[in-house]
Amino acid sequence: MSEKKPFQAESQRMLDLMIHSIYTHKEIFLRELISNASDAIDKRYYHALQQGDSGLGREHFGITIAADKDARTLTVADNGCGMNGEELESNLGTIARSGSLQFKSELESAEEIDIIGQFGVGFYAAFMVAEEITVRSRKAGEDQGWRWHSVGADGFTVEPCEKDETGTVIILRIKDNTEEENYDEFLESYRIRELIKRYSDYIRYPIRMDVETSRPKESAADAPEGEDDGAEPEWETVTETQTLNSMSPLWRRNKNEVTQEEYEQFYQDTFHDMTAPLRVLHSSAEGTATYQALLFFPAKAPYNYYNKDFEKGLRLYASGVMIMEACKDLLPDCFSFVRGLVDSQDLSLNISREMLQHDRQLKIIAKHIEKKIKSELKAMLDDEREKYNEFYQSFGLQLKYSLYAGYGMQRDLLLDLLLFRSTKEEQQVTLAEYLGRMPEEQTAIYYACGESTEQIRRLPQSERLEEKGIEILCLTDDIDEFLLKILHEYEGKEFRSISDAGLELESEEEKKSLEQQAETKKPLLEAMKEALAGKVDDVCLTARLKSHPVCLATQGGVTLEMERILSAQPGAAGQPPVKASRVLELNATHPIMERLTALQTENPAKVKDYASLLYSQALLMEGFPVEDPVAFSNMICELMV
């Protein structure tokens, strides 16, 4: 009987750390064992190339999985380089010693050899699910096989054994179930297939397993003529060897070799979206950061996209092995709608390969991806406007919120991707398109807030602007005006609300006439202001109106739309109300002014009623409810009799 040897790294404590602290999910053990097997095949294949052994090609290598429910064993076998007794003791007897890391350091210039087992601890992940591990291995070029055996932290044994072929076989004795854990799942073929598909689908060598399937004993085609009586066929269970992984990542193929149908099928299968993506971005880079990326722009937002439980991020692969389901650091929040993956050989992974270390390469890749996404969106905007409009309907709010949340810091990245509705165009327009149509004498970009373009067109303030040929941006999303307030200007043109007091659209002649009338009507205006005390801060004449008698304007930083939105926020009821500084503007040329002037002389008390009536009209036209509907109705009735 061979002598039991202790592990050379604080045995119990270190092994407990490997099993209970490093890995988040027990299922990771299979990924680690398969990755190690792939590394071992890489080493043998590389040495065969170096030695000119043309008899060994990639097609001769593979990994085999076998599960025995009765014996509770799971076996992972490969025909890679194998290990002799000394290497078994050195590589498996010393925790955190990696033969792969040493091999990689010797092959910095080797092509097509991607070794990911750099820490030497992945093998020990198997102890999370196994109470006993046996390794049988035979090194390439040697005749003697060796057996390594361990039941955990107590230590291990190494002894000679019979092994006919080069390679390594790892046999796990799976633990019995407990109240907390179901270990049986790792003996089920469906679960094994699922884990391989998820983590190891793109390992470059075939992963094979014998799988039981059912089939009819005798098909209708094989039945003697005339003997088909319509009875149900008998079924039999047969065992067939299946390859469980695809081996060929779509993103590693040349773009001109992949069809649109293949991209769409991959997207729908991988991200469980029944709708084809609007755009596919397939790119690779070499140099400061080497990676391949396959990104998709969805046509529709997921049901929970604008909820806090939505998880952004790209799948992250290291040399074809999935490391993270959703790596948040690869995507800025503004582009969180993008689905896809990144595969890189250059990332510094932590010891369990489940998480990334803070890494310069990751930041470089993320910056490249950000630029690629922006470029692709801009190309869609310029060349496929209908498709971009479809995208924007689902994700335009995300671009706006991101720009607002960053106080405009991502201005250069996002501003030219924004769209707004307009009084001149059926479709939404960019700020650049608005600017390109501006009359030379126009000094600002004008906007108005409302529920729809039609409502904004009906505003009293819009009539004169449209007459002057001035286009109005129609802000129909709650975030819009807050965003423009932060941005302040575009290409030197200030954003101005058409409801701002003192908009100064009048000619010099109109201004002079208005000043003269305001002086004449001063007692009337002051009387109306007094009548509306607490409701408006001023009453004045304006030349901005055409057919309407009155409108509401605001002065200061808070507009009527901002007041409405902030007042409706959760928790606003318990806070001091947010109020805009309101100004009631009267059309200096409207017939109502003659009536008001006459009332000021004939019946000054009636001016108060008219002031209240006009104020209520202005509220209604702005989309606000009147403060006292009953009083408003009574005043209308009085005027009618």
Overview of the molecule:
The structure is a single chain. The chain is of the alpha+beta class. It has four domains: 11-214, Heat Shock Protein 90; 250-386, Ribosomal Protein S5, domain 2, CATH 3.30.230.80; 419-497, Rossmann fold, CATH 3.40.50; 508-640, Heat shock protein 90, C-terminal domain (Four Helix Bundle (Hemerythrin (Met), subunit A)). It is 35% helix and 20% strand. It is built from 19 helices and 21 strands. It has helices at residues 11-22, 28-50, 85-93, 99-106, 189-199, 260-271, 360-383, 385-405, 411-414, 431-437, 453-457, 460-467, 479-487, 508-520, 522-531, 560-567, 591-602, 604-621, 629-640, and strands at 63-68, 73-78, 130-138, 145-150, 156-161, 167-174, 207-216, 235-243, 279-285, 291-297, 314-318, 321-327, 339-344, 421-422, 444-449, 472-475, 489-490, 493-497, 538-542, 550-555, 581-587. The strands form four sheets. Strands 5-4-3-6-2-1-7-8 form an eight-stranded mixed β-sheet, with helices on one face. Strand 1 (63-68) and strand 2 form a beta hairpin. Helix 7 (360-383) packs across helix 8 (385-405), helix 8 (385-405) crosses helix 13 and helix 15 (522-531) packs across helix 18. The chain is elongated. The termini are far apart. 33% of the residues are buried. Mean pLDDT is 87; it is low at 96-101 and 107-120.
